Amino acid sequence: MSRPHTFAHVVYRTRNFDRMLDWYQRVFEAKVQFQSPVLAFLTYDDEHHRFALVNLALLAPTAPPLNPPATATVEHVAYGFKTLHDLMTHYVRLKEQGITPYWAIHHGITISLYYGDPDGNQMEFQTDCFANNDEANAYMYGPDFAQNPIGVEFDPEPMAAAVLKGAPLSDFARRPPGPMSPVRSAARQL
């Protein structure tokens, strides 16, 4: 079977074009590759674009809302950071700009911070807790994950402080004890 070898990009339809454009530039330090009043392409690396924004306020100003509450939509898009240090550095940079996660959770397989953009699209910034996929898969098949497949919430502040002072991933890789978190949603946070 032929499989994709990279994740290419995400396209968002929005009525908050300017706010979305600003948010993606700040959160991802993305560069605008092309922008018109109706469309923008942005990237955070050497790919030609990772995000595209379509300005519905100009393209379809009288169209009804896109996603009524009963409509199925994407839950979230996840982005992986190479190290916990990288993830926590990103957290601190965003916090300094007033952008904070609505959910910080240790899933057991990942340490994850969830954010919502101005339209309520949800994204997960994560780092893996295991050295390789075999170890992560073994954990997912084990009793700890079966008892709590969602994870345990945590306060990112003390973790960020410790990691930025040099604490290794091994200090945080094991999921802490605690109750299973209810699933959170950016839509309820906005």
SS strand fraction: 15-25%
Determine the fraction of residues in helical runs and give it as a percent range: 25-40%
State the assembly state of the protein chains: single chain
In total, how many domains does the architecture comprise? 2
Number of helices: 7
What is the number of E strands?
9
Shape designation: globular
Structural class: alpha+beta
Question: SSE order, as H and E?
Answer: EHEEEHEHEEEHHEHH
Q: Can you give the mean pLDDT?
A: 88
Strand count, sense and barrel status of the largest sheet are: 5 strands, mixed
Question: Explain this structure to me?
Answer:
The chain is of the alpha+beta class and 190 residues long. It folds into two domains: 10-58, Signal recognition particle alu RNA binding heterodimer, srp9/1 (2-Layer Sandwich), CATH 3.30.720; 77-189, 2-Layer Sandwich (Signal recognition particle alu RNA binding heterodimer, srp9/1), CATH 3.30.720.110. It is built from seven helices and nine strands. It has helices at residues 17-28, 56-59, 84-96, 133-140, 143-147, 156-164, 186-189; strands spanning 10-14, 31-35, 39-43, 51-55, 77-80, 103-106, 110-116, 122-128, 152-153. The strands form two sheets. A five-stranded mixed beta sheet has the order 5-8-7-6-9. A hairpin with a 3-residue loop joins strand 6 (103-106) and strand 7. The chain starts with 9 loop residues before the first strand and ends with a helix.
